[in-house]
Please model this.
Amino acid sequence: MRHFFNSTRREVHRLGQSPWDLAMVTWVPVLAVVLVVWIFSSAIPRNLPVGVMDEDHSALSRQLVRMLNASPGMQVVDEFDSESSVQLALREVRVYGMINIPRDFERDIKRGIKAEVILRHNAQFATHSSLLQRDVRTVVGTLAAGIEMSARNKRGESAQQAKVSFNPIQIQSIALFNGSGNYEKYLTAAAIPAILHILAMTAGAWAVGREFRDRTLGQWLQHEGPRAVGAALLGKLAIPWVTLTSVGAAALWYITAGRGWDISGSLLWIFLAMTLLMALSLAAGAAAATLTKSLRTALSVTGLLTAPAFAFSGMSFPLSAMPDSARMWATSMPFTHYIRLQTEQLLMGLTFGASAATPAVFLLATLGLLGLAALGLVQARDKPSTWGAR
Amino acid sequence: MTSHHPTSLRSGFVATLRDVLRDKGALMIFVAAPLFYAFFYPWFFGPEVVTRIPVAVVDQDHSALSRSIHRLALANPRIEVKAVGADERAAQAAMSRGEIDGYLVLPDDLKAHVARGMPAMVTVVSNGAYPLISKAVQYGFSEAVGAASAGVEIRQREAKGQSPRQAGESRTPVDFRAMALFNPTEGYSSFIVPAVALFIMHQTLLMGVGMLVATWVERGAAHASPMAWIGRWLAFLLPGLVSGLFYFGWVFWLYGYPRANNVAGSLVFLVLYVSAIVTLGSLVGLWCRDRERVLQVLLFSTLPMVFLAGFSWPPEALPLPLQYLRWLIPTTSGVQAALRLNQMGAPLQSVMPYLGCLLALTVVAGSFVLKFGGKPQGD
Model:
């Protein structure tokens, strides 16, 4: 315990002397998390700019344009009358989509000839274009259903009959676990731990790597044995562990309970996993610094492992669709497992049992990495020639 | 390593190039990192399109109709039917265990209702916690059920005496068709990697330049005359241009990403993009004054930068102050301009606002660098 507290005291003193180092484990994480929450604060994207090319200029086509405009997801910013101006507006991304209403739209429909509304969307902006496709499809479907129903009513079929024979087998779509399609829930909840994961491994690499760079390993660890060195390592990492975990727990509490989001699983279980993810990230940073004996290389390793962790976690692109080799990488990254647990608890409401393996493995991995780092530190401490790498 | 203060453009240029080549850490970041990430990043998204999501079919009807829907689901490439049963709770449990990501319920009154012309309802349940998966499940089952439904409707109309062609035509009065432009297969990799390339270029160059300039500060060799700073920037442009040409010219071609080949426009853009990054990188180096600090403060910045750049998250959905503040980051203009030039083939004049923004960033950051790093101190 003495070694633990001595090391903590030394680290507190060091942080007091370096405003930069203090900032990176206190207000910078707070600011980063606040920024992420702010970015997604408006929840569902609204009013994406689209264009309309109305070649019909009929009452029905104008009705369709009005319905498109009334849909909250999009905003008709311009009407076009030539193909070249349409092409240019799409290329310049003044609009993300272009809705084409063909000539004789109204006349064809009245004669019972099928008419086709075409949406050209910019698939290079995938989020925008999938939102647009959904919304335009809904609007056109509403218009079509209205026309069909009134035609059948005229022919004397009852509304009920009309509805049935319009589409004999209807589909009820249920997206379980995130029915509202609320992107804020989905993205904010995943981005907060992702950014803290990067900051925590950076902090671990920095805390230990700095002793190598500044040739202060001997001063820090004295001539103690492996157990005392392990305690000193824990004492050093304790400070960023407490601060980063607190920031993460506070942020997750704010976006869930603090905003009245009634989550289906256990928030405590998520806090436990967050605590262990921070510990594991710090231990991984410390191990990277010890094994490479270079602060710079340890930070590069940190960047490689943590910066893309969000992209490869299966949240955006499914793990099952990745090639086998890439999936092996993705499933050996701790963030992949953390975010799975968080999703299970926040959105899917699974029981403790379903998510229990992750915290257990995190704990084992943390202890393993800390042990590795402690042994490496003992060896490196006795070889001052290996200190000071830049 | 530079130990004196360069005063001329030529001495700044030569000393910088020498330092880049002698500094193993800088070379790793300038050369090895862009090369590595070019293969690392696309590796994960190789298949492009989400297919074969594991699903189940809950068939409580056991009729010819339910079997035909099941067969159509088996044939759908988006989904892979892993299990068939009659118990919805078993499917729910499998979904909770993560074995499947969705299921289709065919109720026991399906055939009877359809035969009597009554409404029949099937239910598609998908895992909404994962939007891309959920979309594939919903589309896959909708296509299967839609095909079966259309078959039923056409048979019903034929029974009423309409010709098959009439029956097919009047099925729905307005069709909707979505055409994907610029990324016709709607591949995930084609969407994400051309934009991410801009972030890889930005972060590696910013860190590399910042690291070298901070190292100069540590050695007391950072301060130099304006001409020497221009020489340094010209030297820093080289690794940036090389990695830019490597991505635009080779990586995009290698993976077959959509390319519109506005080559001249892309080159103009690249010079301005890299200029903004090297001047900002110099400023970061002067500010950090510590070689490794540059990496420490920049590592976590990628994630917010991606969300602010306006390609994965629509800028229309950002809070108003952020809609303005985000232009202080070169990647915002960079992604918008590069996607237009490289992937959509927009003319150069249509990206002028973004190029102007990059130029303004270069001038402002450059003048700050000259202000804080201009006067040699102590000698």
